[in-house]
Amino acid sequence: MSKITYFPHPVLATYLNDDYNEDCDFKIIHGERHENEEREIIIDDIFYDLKSKTLKKLLENNYAKVVCEVRCAATLFSEAFEIEKKPKKITLKQNELRGTIEFDLKIVLSNKLSNFIFDDDTNRTFYEGESFDLLKNDILAISDTKKFTFEPRNLPDAEIQAKEIFRCVPKSDIDQIEYNIDKEGVFIYLPDKSSNNIHLEWQNLSSKKNLRNLLFVFPLVIRVINRVLNDEISYKWTETIQRDINKYDLVKDNHKAIFKAAQKIMNKNNKASYLKAVKEALNK
How many CB atoms lie within 10 A of CB 155? Predict the structure, then answer.
């Protein structure tokens, strides 16, 4: 989570000196990091130390949950693991990581809350008398960040996998699909209104994720390949696309080859999912 991110409600963040309050401390705790026989990376006993009475109460009443987010900028890997009432062991695959890996904890809301008051949290004077309408998945707290470096080894044929280059994000103030390509990846913005036909179609396909990816994500995969081929975009994450361009010997205007390669790029971790998507469409 960027340190310049702004929120419309109080967020307990240990790293923000202006908001820091030792009575509401939220820190990550973890055990040793090691590898198992399958060469997977293990981080033992991830848990937290939380002093905020307000947030403790939300967790106890299942209005909020703690998640550990693991990130790797070099491969665009990002995955969240829920931390429940006891320390959790996290397992990571070597071919998903390279370079600096970061992980921290976040407290996120599990249910919508109206007129909520942060009784004992940061900047009490500043927020005194204020109430907030909070939505499901709103971030309420961010812990300190832990880091380690790693280079895959004993995996000569492993391909570094890039996850979440293409991300679908709900957006409440649009009626049509929009997208944006920047240094963070490709963001596909979908209307988030219950009466919107695109929103309804997205929801209707929740049990057919391969078909949903084919309809909503696949066209952007092709567009990104073409833009990389034409030297129109160059970011850290496009290195992954460039490796696939080299792997499949793609050239400009060879639309058939690009079409086939786009399927493989989109479905690296789900073999034959394009064929599954076709079956889903036929059975719809």
Answer: 12
CATH hierarchy code of domain 12-150: 2.60.40
Among residues 3, 10, 6, which one has the least CA distance to residue 125? 10
Average pLDDT over residues 184-189: 86
Distance separating alpha carbons of residues 86 and 74, to the nearest angstrom? 31
145, burial (CB in 10 Å: exposed 0-12, middle 13-18, buried 19+): middle
Closest CA to 25 of 35, 13, 34: 13
Beta strand 185-191 with 166-171 is: parallel
Residue 109's alpha-carbon distances to 59, 70, 144, 277, in angstroms, are 9, 19, 19, 33
Cβ neighbours, 10 Å, residue 188? 17
> Rounded distance, CA 163 to CA 271, Å?
15
Token pair listed for 198: 């695109």
> Whole-angstrom Cα distance, residue 144 to residue 48?
10
**pLDDT tens digits for range 212-236:** 888 888 898 899 999 999 999 998 8
Map tokens 């240094």 to a residue: 183
DSSP string, 95-110: GG--EEEEEEEEEEES
| Residue 283 amino acid letter | N
What proportion of the chain, given as a percentage, has pLDDT over 90? 26
Helix (H) or strand (E) holding 46: strand 41-50
Cβ-proximal residues to 66 (8 Å cutoff; 6+ apart), any chain? 48, 59, 82, 83, 84, 105, 106, 107
What's the pTM? Answer: 0.53
> pLDDT tens digits for 18-74?
445 565 678 899 999 988 877 789 999 999 998 888 889 999 999 999 999 998 887
Domain locations along the chain: 12-150, 166-282
Tokens of 151: 């280079």
In the chain, the amino acid numbered 30 is: H
